[in-house]
Amino acid sequence: MTGAVGQKRVPTAYLKECQIPVAPPDQQKHIISEIDKQFSRLDEAVASLKHAQANLKRYKAAVLKAAVEGKLVVDGHDVTGRKWVSKPIDMAIASMEQGWSPQCENEPSRRPDIWGVIKTTAVQSLCYLEFENKRLPPKFKPRTNLELASGDLLVTRAGPRVRVGVTCLVKATRPRLILCDKVYRLRIKPDIANPAFLELVLNAPHIVDELDRLKTGISDSGVNLTQKRFRELMIPLPSLEEQQQIVAEVERHLSVVVAMGKEVTASLQRAERLRSSMLASAFHGKLVAD
Question: CA 52 to CA 17: how far, in whole Å?
Answer without folding.
Answer: 46
